From TrEMBL:
Keywords: Amino-acid transport, Cell membrane, Membrane, Transmembrane, Transmembrane helix, Transport. It is found in: Cell membrane. It comes from the Bacteria. It comes from Actinomadura alba. This is Branched-chain amino acid ABC transporter permease. It is a multi-pass membrane protein. Belongs to the binding-protein-dependent transport system permease family. LivHM subfamily. The chain crosses the membrane at residues 6-27, 34-54, 60-82, 94-115, 135-160, 189-209, 221-248, 255-278. Its main location: membrane. The lineage of its organism: Bacteria, Bacillati, Actinomycetota, Actinomycetes, Streptosporangiales. The keyword Protein biosynthesis does not apply.
Length: 292
């Protein structure tokens, strides 16, 4: 029983990490209808900047602020310079561009910081709590990760459902011509969507870094699992991203604990196929007849 509880707690923590990446993917999908495969490279770059701040004696919180600000600027720059020329082209063009951008960002990071993974300190202790004499795989830093992702999820829900800005972002993504006729600055909304998604991705990178270290290719697996979580939950839903992350995290934790860590990737594939067989569009997918 203790093993099951610990595997579940571990799955929840890792699932929230995947959910953080999934939320960034969901945000950019809802705001621009593009799947950003460069998200892993973008959050890697901003996490490296945060690591540089800490390496030079800065505090964790200053480094986090630097990562978020850098993410905001990077997202806007990428949309304006890289994505804007292909936004009205066939969807495959944007996919290829984001994959190419991922390779470029990883190469740039390797040239600046080298290929050696660097350790990243957590905000709080990673020593697990104790329940009597039983140690739990849940630490203060894990609670911080869970709380931070939950806050981001709630903020995104409120943004898209309760604010005029969220409505403009969705209108710009789904019906840009109509949005322009209604006075919406579609270009600015698309830039803002990428910038906000990059901020969420930067937060995810800082939260993940203590577990996977910081390196040019260290976030690749997390991006894959984050994308899987987003698909499981439904690419349109912030709640789905978090639920998808939790489903995937727990599934992988159980596979690792009860079977073998060598088949974790197969466990992710099995979880994805199982969910899509029941709900082809994801657990929280909206109906096809959508109102903007």
């Amino acid at each position: 029983m203790v093993e099951f509880v610990n595997l579940t707690l571990s799955g929840i923590t890792s699932g929230m990490v995947y959910a953080a990446v999934a939320l960034a993917l969901v945000l950019i999908w809802r705001a621009t209808r593009i799947v950003n495969f460069a998200q892993g490279g973008m959050l890697m770059l901003t996490t490296f900047l945060a690591w540089s701040v800490i390496d030079r004696g800065g505090s964790y919180w200053v480094a986090l602020a630097v990562a978020l600000i850098a993410g905001l600027a990077l997202g806007a720059i990428v949309e304006r310079i890289v994505i804007r020329p292909v936004e009205n082209k066939p969807p495959l063009n944007a996919v290829i561009v984001t994959l190419g951008l991922l390779v470029v960002l990883q190469a740039v990071a390797g040239m600046i910081w080298g290929g050696q993974p660097r350790s990243y300190p957590p905000a709080f202790t990673i020593q697990g709590f104790k329940l009597g004499e039983t140690g739990l795989l849940l630490s203060p830093f894990d609670l911080f990760v869970i709380g931070a992702v939950a806050v981001v999820m709630v903020a995104l829900i409120l943004l898209f459902r309760r604010t005029d800005l969220g409505l403009k972002l969705r209108a710009s993504a789904f019906a840009p011509e109509v949005a322009r006729l209604l006075g919406v600055r579609v270009g600015r909304m698309l830039t803002l969507g990428w910038a906000l998604a990059a901020v969420v991705g930067s937060l995810a990178g800082v939260l993940i870094a203590p577990s996977v270290f910081v390196g040019p290719n260290q976030f690749d697996a997390v991006l894959v699992f984050g994308f899987t979580a987003a698909v499981i939950g439904g690419l349109d839903s912030p709640v789905g991203a978090v639920v998808g992350g939790l489903v995937l995290g727990c599934a992988l934790s159980y596979v690792t604990g009860y079977i073998s860590s060598d088949i974790v990737t197969l466990g992710a594939l099995a979880a994805l196929i199982t969910v899509l067989m029941v709900r082809p569009n994801g657990l929280f997918a909206t109906s096809a007849g959508r109102r903007v």
